[in-house]
Write a structure and sequence with these properties.
Layout lengths: L6 H14 L4 H8 L2 H11 L4 H19 L6 H8 L17 H11 L5 H15 L23 H18 L3 H14 L8 H12 L6 H8 L13
Helix pairs in contact: 1-5, 2-4, 3-4, 6-9, 9-10, 10-11
């Protein structure tokens, strides 16, 4: 959900839309309606709340359509569209992650290069993950009804996952090394007021403790930087 809200992703989706006009229409229809889509929607509804199932289905459809025209897409554009599934369901060219120390070193080496639109986007995602959604205002008599908020709150999951990582580091006796990875990332991140310094430390901490985390948790902690330098590229 976060990945598809990025401006960089939206730009690539526009490219995809143009390519689909020349694709096999029967194949396009198969991914956008009919029995296959109904099956996918049913499967998704079993694992995510109903109010986010539509967003998850749309994300899966975008990836399927990108695969359909993959040969016409720039590899970087395809990687952008496939990113939400890249580590959970490895795609073409996937390489197993390298040792943790090498992966963290690659992350620290790239942090100082973060600038411009990439940095602005990272800061925007970091803000979403730092601020739980505000409670809806009380209804105004005569006003149109407001849709209920999504039950999946990225900020709450982000904070809960980070707390779990800290506890795991303490229990495993790796607190000092964990803090060193975190501090190194915070020092390497741009100190220009963008607000991503602390989030860089969180991302490095998630990578350091990846052996005790579900991959989805690692990716959530890394999400602010996923567009600038995808997790799968930290080789």
């Amino acid at each position: 959900m976060l990945s598809r809200q990025r401006r960089s992703t939206a730009d690539v989706e526009q490219v995809l839309d143009g390519l689909l006009s020349n694709a096999d229409q029967s194949m396009v229809n198969a991914f956008t309606g009919g029995f296959r889509v109904a099956q996918t929607k049913l499967a998704i509804s079993k694992v995510v709340p109903e109010d986010v199932a539509a967003a998850a289905l749309e994300s899966a459809q975008i990836v399927a359509l990108a695969i359909l025209v993959r040969e016409q897409l720039d590899p970087a554009a395809f990687a952008t569209l496939y990113r939400p599934f890249a580590t959970v369901l490895p795609g073409p060219g996937y390489q197993p992650p390298p040792p943790v120390d090498r992966q963290i070193a690659a992350f620290l080496a790239r942090l100082p290069t973060l600038s411009g639109p990439n940095e602005a986007e990272a800061a925007a995602v970091a803000k979403v993950l730092s601020e739980p959604p505000k409670s809806p205002a009380p209804p105004v008599p005569g006003a149109l009804p407001v849709s209920a908020p999504l039950t999946v709150d990225p900020a709450t999951h982000y904070q809960a996952t980070w707390k779990a990582v800290i506890e795991a580091a303490h229990k495993s006796g790796r607190t000092m090394a964990f803090r060193a990875a975190q501090d190194g990332a915070e020092m390497a991140a741009p100190h220009d007021g963008s607000g991503i310094v602390g989030h860089a430390g969180v991302a490095a901490g998630g990578i350091f403790m990846r052996d005790v985390l579900a991959v989805e948790q690692v990716l959530l902690l890394y999400e602010p930087f996923a567009a600038a330098f995808p997790y799968e590229s930290l080789q």
